[in-house]
């Protein structure tokens, strides 16, 4: 909302205050100042002059050489090309040194051999309009030498305020003035339209009948008849005010409606009487499919929730949003009906949204207009048209003086009684922490805002709410009014006295932060990416419709198609980050993200997957009550990607490729910080993880059988689809943080003290069939029935090749034996190794090498 | 000449020769070993002299044996000293040949990790809140209209809803991506009983994307509910928190504003962290930075969650975490936060 200070001064005396001071006061009132703009389009001498003599230019047919008087001093010689430059007329003279809009500097010059000391200006050159009809002809009454900027009211200061949606009353300058009047304790001056200009014999009702359909479309509709108008350009001051407020001057009638809208906040429309068939205005719902061409030239097919203004035949306007082309004020319009009405805010909002047209009118109707002020507004518009005509006539312009009807047609089906709200002084003091504020101060503030103290009993004050304040519904609203006018800065700073809180925190919250720190300490770098993906990501990852991760939440209004789905896996964001880094020439990044994935339960297919069963359970951060709502699932995940290479070549080490085991190292280093090491890594079922290398990937399960996540090399197909090198693909892992939390919370037992007797170690190389996994060895070790002293076993070699039969491999373990009660002898150890070999032979067909 | 005298004379000769042999410059281990053979070996000079003892008279034997032994001991000790010093010298010499270029570069033992600046800031802010007795609370990012708008006093079809460009979920009615963390206020209040001191950080979403807006961003919401909480408490708590995070010398101020779920509502400003209030480019010469919004919790909100709006009062405040992080770390480009570029993100530490 652009507030012209020149205009504001009509309603409250502020001339003594600087714009900065006023801006401060407005901000303190809650009318946030977004900027201050000084308007001074003309610099230097641009003044009223008179052509004493206009003679033909000796060297150019279309130019004249004029002798121009600007009052004091000798006449100026100015060359001018305008056809209307002639003897005697008063003109706008830009003298040497003046600067016109567009940084157009006036310099002494020679035009076709004739020197010229200035310029005679057109409206376009002054930035007043696009009109190129020659130079401006000023009225004969204009005094020579007067600055044009003051004659045309061109200088102004604009304070731009960002209005919050509750303050519909400040969509008119008077509303802003009223707030200031309360704050500055200065009187508010509201112009009173002069009633005596109305013609009592002229009745609006003889020219129009207003019919409101009674379905909540409009609570009041006022039509005022004005006879004998003409759509001429408005007086300059009126044009400038409309222009400075950010609207385009059009003609006296339209400008007057816009002016009063900007003044009062009430949108107004003027109809040409000739266009209203049957002398009737109806306010009704549009018929489904009814057509209307709006003022912007768009032909629109209407819906049954739109409100239209119609005559007996057709729609003539989209109520509250935009007028119809078929009834606008035209050059030959003589008689008009001024419409000032209320329209249902919700319906206007829906219409404006449906057609995506946001107008000054719809903006105000959506927020609510002042029902009580409607007749005043109608009078005020008519008065302004009259006053404008009068001023133009004084300038010698041929405009008829309009006749204003004595009575408007004012339909107000259900008179709305003003609301009342009670304010208790103790409650006000309690909430504002202003114990010393007095009743008189409170009443003073509220009355200056237009509230009326209608009743009071002890400390309970009952106020009548002004009809323009739709935001005042209950006591707290009054408390806010008092507090903001009184000043938030006067409220003391203190700290609350409270019981010590007993509200426990969900363990996941701090766990998440701790894990980020651990992951970063492990050497991974955190990224935060947008949680969006699109069908192309699912395709790249080979995820088919039946896969649980295909059940994605869809956005109805994504910004771009690539962000149409909420991610069901963290990978697309991480891959995008790798690509971003590669674009900047950075390889080998090792990054992680901890965030949520989203799953649409309604889209889960019947195909079951043990690994992905958990995406059907709501994450722990969703409070129990909300779990019963039908809502998408959210899971808390951690995912990482290790780009190639693992390390670049250096002087003492060749380049190292990232492989599966690097990923495993990172993963286990991280989880071991939470005491979780005994995770099971199992070969994947390719259909569960189609984006992973089928042989270099693992599904990870906890000891207790919970699916924790996956780890593996990216499938070459997926890498290729994303434009990554498909021979050396990155390694990724993605795990469920809540499963880690559960594992971390499992109580563990710890051994106390350390063994007193020395350990003995033996190395054992075993030849087993190729298919025997490390995991199988571990199971066999774990199930070693005759275990007495074996404490630890470490794999130190895996070998296939020379000396090992085909289809076999050698795995070498370093075994550690230890007793609690004695130093072991070779014999003790030999005996146990013997027993172990027997078991390994049985379990794994292992032979000593 | 008695045999004894002969022997004494021989000792002097051997001593003299030994002295001569060892008077040279530093001997290496090999030379020391040679001397040991020459004097103490099986055919060495000292050994040979011992052989002559049997020719010495019985009464002179002890005296002669004694002096020979003394000489032998002296030679042994000297040779041992020489051997040790020869070894030292040899070690020094071999070490001197092993010179490293100590200026050669090394790679890090592991890649350097880093935390995202928003995570760092989140940690700092949550620590400040926890120290004031707040409990951190969490809630869903995809939420129902009721929690994000309805219960927060956003009326259906009211222009106030236009203040936040909302992502709607397809295939569902009244389900959205939360536009602010204020939805957690409702979840917390519906789930817990007052008194409450809660802080709720999280990701939030608005369909807006330009230089200063990203469709996903981070907010922190805080609120207190109890009997007798007033606007003075509100001003005091926000002041304390901002001071804790940005410095004790900075003051705060409120400007009345409107958010449907609070009343009276305001925006809060912090003195510019860069110029400390004097006016600079960062604060556009105002001396103040707009940080967030706050206000007394609207009675309509209390009523929507089933609290007694007469008995309980409270305040809530919220602010953008990304902006605060940018202020704190002196960053200029919001979008950079979410592009994953390691040249930028990798420079941050692994601990708050």
**Largest sheet report of chain B:** 7 strands, mixed
- Please report the distance between the alpha carbons of the first and last residues of chain A: 89 Å
Give the total of beta strands of chain A. 41
**Oligomeric description of these chains:** heterodimer
* Alpha plus pi helix count of chain A: 21
* Mean pLDDT across all amino acids of chain B: 91
What is the mean pLDDT of chain A?
A: 93
Q: Alpha-carbon distance between the termini of chain B?
A: 96 Å
Widest sheet of chain A: strand order? 29-32-33-37-36-35-34
Q: Largest interface: which pair?
A: A-B, 104 and 100 residues
Radius of gyration of chain A: 42 Å
Please state how the strands of the largest beta sheet of chain B are arranged side by side.
Answer: 1-4-5-9-8-7-6
Give your account of this protein's structure.
- The complex is a heterodimer of chains A (849) and B (352).
- Chain A is of the alpha+beta class and 849 residues long.
- In chain A, the strands form eleven sheets. Chain A has a seven-stranded mixed beta sheet with strand order 29-32-33-37-36-35-34. In chain A, strands 13, 15, 16, 23, 24 and 25 form a six-stranded mixed beta sheet that branches. A five-stranded antiparallel beta sheet of chain A has the order 5-4-3-6-11, with no helix packed on it.
- Chain A has 21 helices and 41 strands.
- Chain A is elongated.
- The termini of chain A are far apart.
- In chain B, 42% of the residues are buried.
- In chain B, helix 1 runs parallel beside helix 4, helix 2 runs antiparallel to helix 4 and helix 5 crosses helix 10 (321-329).
- Chain B has 352 residues and is α+β, with helices and mostly antiparallel strands.
- The mean pLDDT of chain B is 91.
- The N and C termini of chain B lie far apart (96 Å).
- Chain B has helices at residues 3-22, 29-40, 45-51, 61-96, 117-131, 145-148, 183-191, 231-246, 299-304, 321-329, 342-345, and strands at residues 135-136, 142-144, 175-177, 196-205, 216-226, 252-259, 262-271, 288-297, 313-320.
- Chain B is rod-shaped and about 135 Å long.
- Chain B is built from eleven helices and nine strands.
- In chain B, a hairpin with a 2-residue loop joins strand 6 and strand 7 (262-271).
- In chain B, the strands form two sheets. A seven-stranded mixed beta sheet of chain B has the order 1-4-5-9-8-7-6, sandwiched between helices.
- At the A-B interface, helix 2, helix 7, helix 10, helix 12 and helix 13 of A face helix 5, strand 1, strand 2, helix 7 and strand 4 of B.
């Amino acid at each position: 909302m652009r507030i012209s200070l020149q205009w504001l001064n009509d309603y409250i005396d502020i001339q003594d205050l600087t714009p900065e001071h006023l801006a401060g006061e407005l901000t303190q009132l809650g009318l946030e100042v977004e900027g201050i703009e000084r308007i001074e389009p003309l610099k230097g001498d641009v003044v009223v002059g008179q052509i004493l003599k206009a003679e033909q230019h000796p060297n150019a047919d279309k130019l004249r050489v004029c002798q121009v008087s600007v009052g004091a001093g000798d006449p100026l010689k100015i060359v001018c090309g305008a056809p209307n430059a002639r003897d005697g007329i008063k003109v706008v003279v830009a003298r040497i040194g003046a600067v016109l809009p567009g940084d157009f500097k006036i310099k002494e010059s020679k035009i076709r051999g004739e020197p010229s000391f200035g310029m005679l200006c057109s409206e376009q050159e002054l930035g007043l309009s696009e009109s190129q009809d020659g130079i401006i002809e000023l009225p004969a009454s204009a005094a020579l030498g007067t600055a044009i900027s003051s004659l045309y009211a061109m200088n102004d200061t604009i304070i731009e305020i960002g209005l919050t949606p509750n303050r519909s009353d400040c969509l008119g300058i008077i509303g802003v003035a009223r707030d200031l009047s309360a704050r500055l304790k200065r009187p508010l001056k509201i112009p009173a339209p002069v009633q005596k200009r109305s013609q009592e014999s002229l009745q609006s009702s003889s020219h129009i009948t207003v019919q409101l359909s009674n379905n909540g479309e409009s609570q009041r509709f006022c039509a005022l008849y004005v006879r004998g108008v003409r759509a001429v350009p408005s007086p300059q001051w009126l044009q400038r005010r409309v222009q400075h407020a950010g609207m385009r001057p059009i003609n006296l009638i339209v400008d007057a409606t816009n002016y009063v809208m900007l003044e009062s906040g009430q949108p107004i429309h003027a109809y040409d009487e000739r266009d209203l068939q049957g002398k009737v205005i109806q306010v009704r719902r549009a018929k489904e499919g009814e057509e209307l061409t709006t003022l912007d030239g768009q032909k629109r097919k209407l819906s049954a929730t739109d409100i239209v203004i119609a005559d007996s035949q057709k729609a003539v306007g989209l109520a509250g949003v935009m007028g119809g082309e078929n009834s606008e004020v035209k050059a030959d319009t003589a008689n008009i009906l001024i419409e000032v009405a209320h329209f249902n805010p919700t319906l206007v909002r829906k219409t404006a949204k449906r057609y995506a047209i946001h107008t000054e009118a719809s903006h105000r109707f959506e927020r609510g207009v002042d029902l009580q002020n409607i007749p005043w507004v109608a009078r005020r518009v008519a008065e302004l048209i009259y006053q404008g005509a009068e001023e133009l006539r004084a300038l010698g312009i041929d405009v008829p003086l309009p006749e204003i009807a004595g009575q408007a047609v004012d339909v107000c089906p259900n008179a709305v009684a003003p609301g009342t709200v009670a304010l208790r002084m103790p409650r006000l003091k309690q909430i504002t922490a202003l114990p010393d504020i007095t009743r008189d101060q409170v009443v003073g503030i509220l009355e200056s805002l237009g509230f009326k103290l209608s009743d009071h009993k002890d400390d309970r004050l009952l106020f009548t709410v002004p009809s323009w304040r739709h935001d005042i519904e209950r006591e707290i609203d009054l408390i806010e009014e008092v507090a903001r006018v009184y000043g938030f800065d006067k409220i003391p700073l203190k700290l609350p006295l409270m019981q010590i809180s007993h509200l426990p925190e969900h363990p996941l919250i701090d766990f998440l932060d701790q894990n980020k720190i651990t992951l970063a300490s492990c050497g991974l770098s955190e990224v935060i990416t947008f949680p969006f993906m699109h069908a192309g990501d699912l395709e790249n990852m080979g995820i088919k419709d039946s896969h649980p991760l295909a059940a994605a939440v869809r956005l109805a209004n994504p910004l771009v198609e690539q962000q149409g789905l909420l991610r069901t896996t963290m990978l697309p964001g991480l891959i995008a980050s790798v690509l971003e880094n590669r674009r900047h020439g950075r390889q080998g990044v090792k990054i992680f993200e901890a965030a949520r994935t989203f799953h649409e339960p309604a889209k889960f297919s019947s195909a079951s997957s043990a690994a992905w069963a958990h995406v059907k359970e709501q994450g722990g951060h969703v409070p129990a009550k909300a779990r019963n709502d039908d809502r998408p699932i959210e899971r808390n995940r951690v995912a990482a990607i290790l780009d190639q290479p693992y390390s670049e070549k250096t002087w003492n080490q060749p380049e190292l490729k990232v492989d599966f085991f690097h990923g495993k190292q990172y993963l286990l280093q991280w989880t071991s910080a939470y005491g979780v090491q005994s995770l099971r890594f199992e070969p994947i079922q390719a259909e569960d993880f189609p984006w992973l290398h089928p042989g270099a990937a693992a599904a990870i399960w906890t000891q207790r059988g919970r699916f924790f996540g996956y780890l593996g090399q990216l499938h070459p197909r997926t890498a290729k689809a994303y434009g990554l090198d498909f021979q050396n693909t990155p390694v990724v892992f993605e795990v469920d943080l809540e499963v880690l939390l559960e594992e971390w919370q499992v109580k563990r037992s710890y051994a106390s003290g350390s063994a007193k007797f020395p350990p003995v170690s033996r190395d054992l190389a075993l030849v087993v069939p190729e298919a025997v996994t490390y995991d199988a060895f571990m199971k066999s070790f774990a199930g070693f029935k005759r275990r007495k002293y074996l404490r630890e076993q470490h794999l130190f070699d895996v070998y296939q090749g020379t000396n090992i039969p085909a289809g076999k491999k050698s795995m070498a373990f370093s075994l550690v034996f230890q007793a609690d009660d004695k130093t072991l002898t070779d014999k003790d150890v030999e005996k146990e190794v013997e027993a172990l070999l027997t078991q390994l032979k049985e379990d794994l067909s292992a032979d000593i090498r | 000449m008695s045999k004894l005298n002969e022997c004494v004379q021989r000792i002097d000769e051997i001593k003299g020769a030994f002295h001569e042999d060892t008077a040279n410059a530093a001997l290496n281990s090999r030379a020391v070993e040679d001397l040991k053979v020459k004097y103490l070996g099986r055919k060495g000079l000292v050994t040979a002299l011992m052989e002559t003892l049997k020719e010495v008279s019985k009464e002179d034997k002890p005296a002669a044996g004694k002096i020979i032994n003394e000489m032998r001991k002296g030679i042994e000790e000297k040779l041992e000293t020489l051997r040790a010093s020869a070894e030292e010298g040899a070690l020094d010499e071999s070490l001197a040949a092993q010179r490293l270029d100590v200026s050669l570069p090394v790679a890090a033992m592991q890649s350097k990790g880093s935390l995202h600046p928003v995570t760092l800031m989140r940690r700092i802010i949550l620590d400040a809140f926890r120290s004031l007795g707040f409990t951190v609370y969490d809630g869903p990012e995809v939420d129902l209209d009721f929690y994000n708008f309805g219960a927060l006093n956003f009326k259906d079809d009211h222009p106030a809803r236009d203040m936040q460009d909302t992502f709607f979920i397809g295939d569902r009615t009244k389900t959205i991506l939360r536009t602010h963390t204020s939805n957690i206020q409702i979840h917390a209040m519906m789930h817990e009983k007052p008194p409450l001191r809660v802080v709720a950080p999280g990701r939030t979403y608005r369909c807006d994307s330009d230089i200063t807006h990203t469709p996903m961003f981070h907010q922190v919401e805080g609120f207190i509910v109890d009997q007798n909480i007033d606007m003075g408490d509100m001003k005091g708590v926000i002041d304390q928190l901002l001071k804790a995070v940005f410095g004790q010398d900075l003051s705060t101020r409120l400007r009345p504003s409107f958010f449907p779920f609070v009343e009276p509502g305001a925006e809060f400003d912090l003195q510019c962290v860069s110029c400390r209030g004097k006016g600079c480019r960062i604060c556009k010469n105002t001396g103040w930075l707009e940080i967030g919004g706050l206000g007394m919790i609207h009675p309509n909100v209390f009523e929507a969650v089933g609290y007694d709006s007469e008995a309980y009062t409270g305040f809530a405040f919220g602010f953008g975490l990304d902006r605060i992080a940018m202020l704190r770390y002196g960053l200029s480009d919001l979008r950079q936060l979410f592009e994953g570029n390691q040249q930028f993100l990798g420079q941050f530490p692994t601990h708050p």
